[in-house]
Amino acid sequence: MKITLLFFGVTADLIGKTVLVMALENTMTVGALKLVLKEKYLKLKNIDTYAVAVNEAYAEGTLILKEGDVVAIIPPVSGG
Fold first, then answer.
1. Rounded to an integer, what distance in angstroms lies between the CA atom of residue 49 and that of residue 8?
2. Overall average pLDDT of the 26-49 stretch
3. Would the pTM of this model clear 0.85, i.e. be above it?
4. Nearest CA to 65 among 7, 10, 2, 13?
């Protein structure tokens, strides 16, 4: 199955892309996807936490991804 990943802020800088289509061989949860991304893109290990949204809604690690999902990787933000 294929999903589309959208990277924002520093995650886009670390990956070098803002959009990536990824083929998943098996059913995968958001939590498992985060582990795969950290293994594939070692620079993501430099970020302690980041939020994940699936189809424009924040997602917990237990959410199971489906064909065609759009997954946004949202880094922590700061400001004042």
1. 13
2. 89
3. yes
4. 2
